[in-house]
Every structure is written in C-alpha cells, then in structure tokens.
Amino acid sequence: MPLLLGALALAGLLILLGRFSAARIPTLKAFALWVGAIGGGLMLVLLILTGRADLALAALLLGGPVLWSYVAAPRREGRRPWGGAL
After folding, report:
1. Backbone angles phi, psi at 27, to 5 degrees
2. Residue 29 and residue 24: Cα distance in Å, rounded?
3. Are residues 59 and 44 in contact, defined by beta-carbon separation less than 8 angstroms?
4. Is the whole model's pTM more than 0.90, yes or no?
C-alpha cells in the first residue's frame, strides 16, 4: 500500500512538473503572488488565534513597505503591478 501511494505521488509530481515547464512566466508570477498572499494571510490569522498578535502586528508593519513598493512603484511608471495599463 505505501508503495502504491508513493508511486501515485511521484506520478502526480511528474505531471505537475510537466505543466510547470510549459507554463508562461506571467502565469507563474501570478501563481507565486497568490501563494504568498494566501500563505501570509493564513499565517497572520494563525498568529492572532494562537495569542501571538504582537508578532502578527510586527509582520504586518515589516511587510507593509514591501507590499507598498510592489504596488506603488509600477503605478508611478504608468502600469499595474500585475501587467496591463492603468
């Protein structure tokens, strides 16, 4: 049984790697942005729910300028951070 599960996991990984190699760069960037946003949001919620709201606030304060530079810099250049015109 574990051998079958390992073989299925390996096959799934190979299929995902094949799709990853055929993906376009903007698609990969959008995927990474979504994974980071969802992961960061989940981490903030877990920090708050486990009583570590001070760490959550510190993460927000440290991550805020990074997010702002990602969003505001392309707008100064006249384009959106995810592509396209304003």
Report:
1. -65, -40
2. 9
3. yes
4. no
